[in-house]
Structure formats: C-alpha cells, structure tokens
Design goal:
Strand content: 15-25%
Number of strands: 13
Bound molecules: adenosine-5'-triphosphate, magnesium ion
Strand order of the largest sheet: 3-6-9-1-10
CATH architecture of the largest domain: 3-Layer(aba) Sandwich
Shape: globular
Number of domains: 2
Largest sheet: 5 strands, parallel
Helix content: 40-55%
Radius of gyration: 20 Å
Number of helices: 13
CATH class of the largest domain: Alpha Beta
C-alpha cells in the first residue's frame, strides 16, 4: 500500500515538474490543473492574451501518453465539427460515423466564447455525459476525457457569452496572471532557443491517470468537513449580495476536487484548508451577483470571502 502511494505521488510529481518547466512561477495554478485532471473535471482558463494558457494545456497533453486534439473556436464552427458526422457510404450502402475532435482524451477548446451558443451546447453533452449523439446514435468518448477551454475576458467583440448551464459544467475556472519580474526574465532565458514544451516527454499514460482518478475517490472526508462544504454552498444561496447561488453540482465538484487536491499533496484525508483554497476557482463562476451589489463595488471574490467568514470552520480533526 505504502509503496503504491509513493509510486502514485511520483507520477503526480513528474507531471508537476513537466508543467513547471514550461509555465514558470505558477505552481498553485498548476496544482489546480492537476486537481482537475485527477478529479476528472473540466477546466476553463480565462485570461488576457499571452499569459501561457495554451502552452499550459499543451504541456499537460504532451505529458500524458494519450490522444490530444485542439479546436480553435470561431462563429463558423458547427456542432458536427466537434462531435463528428455520419456520412453515407455508397459502396457499403449505409452511414459511416466519422468521429470529430471530441473523441479524444484531452480536448483543448481554444477561445470557447467565439463558438456560437449552438456549438457550445454540443459540448455540454460531451462534458456531462462523456458521450455525443449524432443522428440519433450514441457514441462514447474515450476515458479519461478532459475538456480544457480557454477564453479571453477583454475581447468581447464577436463572442457568445457562455450560458450558466455551460459554466456549471466546468469544475474549475481560474486565470494564470502575469509572472513576476524575476520569473519573466527566467522565461525569456528559458525560451531563447526552443520552447521547453516542444521537447517535453510523456511521464504518464492514460491507464495510470484512470488509476489515480479511482484512488481519489477513496480519500477520506470527515463528516465535519463534508458539512463544511455543504454549509459554504448553501450560504451562497442565502447571501444578500448573491442573486444566483451555487448548485448542488458544485457541492459535488468541491468535494471531489478537495479529495484530489489532498491526494496530490500526499495526504489521504481532506483538510478544511483544501476546501478553502478551492472555493474561488470552483464556486466563482457559478454565482451571480445582484446588480445593486455590483454597483456598490461588490465582486464575486469579495462576496465569496464574505460567505466564508460566515461559515464556521471545523476545528477538531480526528486525524
Ligand atoms: N508564466 C509563464 N511562464 C513561461 N512562459 C510563459 C508564461 N506566461 C506566458 N508565457 C509564454 O508566453 C507565450 C504565449 O503563451 P500562450 O500562447 O500560451 O498564451 P495564451 O494565454 O494562450 O494567449 P492567447 O489568449 O492569445 O491564446 C508562450 O511562449 C508562453 O510560454
Ligand atoms: Mg492561446
């Protein structure tokens, strides 16, 4: 058992090293990405251009021996460009399914908010059910299936804001932000010849990732910590500044992600601190503020901080 645990952590460590060699100074964000990977959750990376979003996802895809596809979204993209199409085959006198890019392990959906609402909704089924329906036929996606999407918050022209239902299907949403001065110089030096992502070697395969995902389910969640999660989510539905609170799906997402976050830190039980760290990237995109609250200067982050202040943290941990 102990030996297995050590081997598991070595895989996590190798993935982390790979990602950190490409995207510098973003250890916490990389941990969030690995949390999503091990919890089997989809990620939305939102940030201004040139902050390393695509490179980070590419680095993860290259680190895992599996299938990787990329969709560059634009308003002309059709749902069947994602799911695939059935084409009539005259010789066989029947329809043959030609799979779309969604039939992959890691799907990078770049600039997702440039796809039309109709095309975005084609992704919904894939994200939630891990299958797509084409001409009434159901096609299972390979496992693991992870959708990593990017969007740019500045450039709103020609974009389609993601509907709430779509946002709720992303387990985590976070941004990378600028590196600090010293890191930015290190980046300049590290990319002076070839980009480190180009020479990255796979350090895990899909079987190993599936096995780690299974083990995350066994991470221990003490009753008090489980209730802490429930209380936080329920408080978002009562808070006077919040118009739309977090869904029961987010309760499950927070629980599952907290277990994965504990796992990647080599712990076999969840601490209240794991939950605290994950509240902004997990609940932030699922709540909406009242317009009066926004006018008064309230932000989603400040509303969540206020929620957290009102929920009692469990103190007595049995382990
Ligand atoms: N923290 C960082 N560490 C290392 N490289 C970085 C960092 N931030 C940005 N870069 C580098 O900046 C370049 C642009 O990154 P990338 O293409 O991933 O940006 P992006 O966020 O996807 O931008 P866009 O929104 O325009 O698609 C890459 O060479 C990437 O390695
Ligand atoms: Mg990009």
């Amino acid at each position: 058992m102990e030996g297995n645990r050590k081997a598991d952590l070595e895989i996590v460590q190798r993935l982390q090293n790979n990602l950190e060699s490409c995207i510098l100074g973003k250890r916490e964000e990389i941990k969030l990405l690995l949390t999503a990977l091990l919890a089997g959750g989809h990620v939305l990376l939102e940030d201004v251009p040139g902050t390393g979003k695509t490179v980070l996802i590419k680095a993860l895809a290259r680190s895992i021996k599996g299938q990787y596809r990329r969709i560059q979204c634009n308003p002309d993209l059709l749902p069947t460009d994602i799911t695939g199409v059935s084409i009539y085959h005259p010789k066989m006198e029947s329809f043959v399914f030609r799979p779309g890019p969604v039939m992959t392990n890691i799907l990078l959906t770049d600039e997702i908010n440039r796809a039309t609402t109709k095309t975005q909704s084609a992704l919904l089924e894939a994200m939630e059910e891990h299958h797509v329906t084409v001409d009434g036929e159901l096609y299972e996606l390979p496992e693991p299936f992870l959708l990593l999407a990017t969007q740019n918050p500045i450039d709103f022209e020609g974009t389609y804001v993601l509907p709430e239902a779509q946002l709720d299907r992303f387990m985590l949403k976070f941004s990378l932000g600028y590196p600090d001065e010293a890191t930015e110089y290190r980046m300049l030096v590290s990319q002076s010849k070839v980009h480190p992502v180009e020479t990255l070697e796979p350090v895990a395969d899909t079987e190993q990732i599936l096995a780690l995902q299974q083990k995350v389910h066994d991470i221990y969640l003490e009753e008090e910590v489980g209730k802490y999660i429930v209380n936080i989510v329920r408080k978002t539905r009562e808070h006077p500044s919040i118009f739309l609170g977090a869904s029961p799906r987010s309760t499950l997402a927070l629980t599952h992600a907290a277990k994965a976050y504990a796992f990647i830190q080599g712990r076999d039980f969840v601490l209240p601190d794991d939950v605290k760290t994950l509240v902004p990237p997990i609940l932030g995109h699922r709540i909406l503020l009242h317009s009066e609250a926004r006018l008064e200067g309230m932000t989603v982050s400040s509303a969540l901080r206020s929620v957290m202040e009102q929920v009692k943290v469990p103190v007595r941990m049995q382990r």
